[in-house]
Amino acid sequence: MPPEPIRYFHRAKRTVETEQVYGEEWLRWTYGTTLGRFALNALVKRAVASRYYGWRMSLRDSANRILPFIVDYDLNVDEFAKKPLTFKTFNEFFYRALKPGARPVAEGERVAVLPADGRHLAFQNVDAAAGFYAKGQQFDLKAFLGDEALAAKFSGGAMLISRLCPVDYHRFHFPVAGMPSEPRLINGWLYSVSPIALRQNLAYLWQNKRMVTLVESPEFGTVAVCEIGATMVGSIFQSFVLGRAVTKGEEKGLFKFGGSCVVTLFPPGKIRLDADLVQQSAAGLEVYARMGERLGEAV
């Protein structure tokens, strides 16, 4: 029986498409076979494996991978802030900046935006979010935030899961304007966050290393923006300045090499998520959309 493909809804094109998975054969072996799961627990989930690969992607000879990658995944070089041949390493290319205006930010003080390019799942009530990667698996807010009181604050609120593939733009941004807290690191493993892995165990989302930043927003209250590390992610780097209010769509930080994930949480009764995101998520389809597009509106 052939493996189940990963399908998503392309927001701009209004079509259902099949994901071209980077390293698919390796992912299916690692998470779908007995020997692969042994390798996963012995080595792959551990930081040393990802650090080694991140180091390899920072060597000068890794730059030889850039042009084939651009061709294989049909990336739009016109939006890059630098020309492809000027990147000294693959990692430098991977966390590239884009030209100003390449990601327009939806206007309106009461409008929240997507924090990253990627495939998004949106739920109006996080407590009712279950079975979106595999039947019977429910998102554990307390385990994810590592703080019972904070989890209670977001219980019943809205949640967005933004999954970044290696082919995506890998900087993440603030979905709302406000005053951010100092990011809090929660150490953990580095499992893959591909649906190939999450269909086996949704708990990878709260077992992985992650960083939690609380943003105090005049329109949305306390918003949690949480970055999740994953296999082959060298690091999560925060670039924003502490002690200064941020604007919506402003850069927050970047991921080094690998697939990764951003989870955004809103308190109950503070946002009405856009209907297309909620409807596709309810049907089990992630929505491909880009940073700065509408997420929802303050209630």
UniProtKB/TrEMBL annotation:
List the GO biological process terms. phospholipid biosynthetic process
EC id = 4.1.1.65
What keywords tag this UniProt record?
Answer: Decarboxylase, Lyase, Pyruvate, Zymogen
For the keyword Lyase, the answer is yes
Per the record's keyword annotation, is Lyase included, yes or no?
yes
User: Which enzyme type, at the first EC level?
Assistant: lyase
Entries under InterPro entries matching the protein: PS_Dcarbxylase
Molecular functions per Gene Ontology: phosphatidylserine decarboxylase activity
Pfam families recorded? PS_Dcarbxylase (PF02666)
User: PANTHER family recorded for this chain?
Assistant: PHOSPHATIDYLSERINE DECARBOXYLASE, PHOSPHATIDYLSERINE DECARBOXYLASE PROENZYME 2
UniProt protein name: Phosphatidylserine decarboxylase proenzyme
Gene source species: Lacunisphaera limnophila
